[in-house]
Backbone:
């Protein structure tokens, strides 16, 4: 076979793969989503696209953490929303005193750094909370029984959620704890829409975090070890991977991402004990829609669900924001049970 023939064969193969992807459920859905976003932006205004981008980035972070735990540890974590709340509370209690101090003692540098200090602190608290949950709860369950793991871990996370919600209410009460905004800058005009600086920064944080997470998972030895455990836990142990360390890191990363999302969106979602229920539902919408355990697809799914929510809010009404997206996802799953991008959870049916 000549070099030219080989090149033509590769090109034909690439074009065939592209055509197959465009005709796949995922490809068709993405194309329809882009078309809907363009039409809604033209019809209703650029704020629809802006809101979709900002909230989609954070839903991607939240869903990616949930998908990671399910893909690596086979844990359907229904306490994931409480990590979001932990981030919100931490950011509030770190940032609010600084905000009051700055009201009496203006300092431009501290004003610029304070939001990032609060978000980093929230992420650290999330990491620690994830570590504690893995060591105290799930490691003990693994030591005693691996039978009916999915159901047992599900029940444990529901119990953890109840304990954390009621514990937060007992300590801090049921009052809303929010902030008007992290930054005291005038809105910026993007594509004809006035966008708060807080929203721009939240999106920037999401993008940087997603890129860093992709690099970590694909280019580092630890990231490859996590992926190895997700693919074959027994094989990973045979080649010398420390399973306990990987599982601790996985849960910590998942919780840290959720806490970061909660802290970054504090200006939109005030902290209160049950504030995590909404984000939890959204994260599960995404994970089920794209495929259980499919971490990379969860990023795309976060923006897809955000677009569905914004379109529903604008064209139907805010009261239907959860109803119509849920109905659409149910219809999709009736025909594609494994999700648009396919599940990456191995052996789940046997567990």
Residues:
């Amino acid at each position: 076979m000549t070099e030219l023939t080989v090149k033509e064969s590769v090109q034909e193969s690439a074009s065939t793969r592209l055509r197959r992807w465009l005709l796949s459920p995922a490809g068709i859905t993405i194309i329809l989503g882009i078309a809907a976003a363009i039409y809604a932006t033209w019809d209703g205004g650029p704020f629809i696209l802006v809101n979709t981008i900002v909230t989609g980035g954070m839903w991607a972070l939240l869903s990616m953490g949930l998908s990671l735990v399910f893909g690596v540890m086979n844990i359907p974590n229904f306490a994931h929303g409480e990590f979001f709340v932990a981030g919100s509370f931490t950011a509030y209690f770190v940032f609010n005193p600084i905000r009051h101090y700055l009201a009496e003692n203006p300092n431009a540098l501290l004003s610029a750094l304070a939001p990032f200090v609060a978000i980093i602190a929230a992420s650290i608290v999330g990491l620690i909370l994830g570590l504690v949950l893995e060591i105290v709860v799930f490691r003990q369950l693994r030591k005693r029984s691996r039978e009916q793991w999915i159901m047992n871990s599900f029940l444990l996370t529901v119990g953890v959620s109840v304990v954390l919600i009621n514990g937060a209410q007992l300590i801090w009460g049921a009052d809303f704890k929010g902030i008007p905004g992290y930054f005291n800058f005038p809105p910026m005009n993007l594509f004809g829409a006035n966008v708060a600086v807080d929203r721009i920064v939240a999106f920037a944080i999401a993008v940087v975090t997603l890129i860093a997470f992709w690099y970590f998972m694909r280019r580092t030895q630890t990231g490859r070890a996590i992926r190895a455990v997700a693919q074959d836990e027994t094989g990973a142990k045979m080649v010398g991977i420390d399973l306990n360390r990987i599982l601790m890191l996985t849960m910590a990363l998942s919780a840290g991402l959720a806490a970061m999302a909660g802290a970054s969106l504090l200006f939109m979602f005030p902290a209160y004990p049950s504030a995590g229920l909404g984000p939890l539902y959204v994260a599960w919408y995404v994970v089920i829609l794209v495929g259980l355990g499919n971490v990379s697809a969860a990023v795309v799914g976060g923006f897809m669900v955000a677009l569905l929510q914004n379109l529903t809010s604008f064209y139907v009404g805010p009261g239907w924001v959860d109803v119509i997206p849920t109905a659409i996802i149910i219809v999709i799953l009736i025909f594609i049970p494994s999700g648009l991008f396919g599940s990456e959870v191995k052996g789940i049916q046997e567990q």
About this structure: Strands lie at 188-190, 193-195.
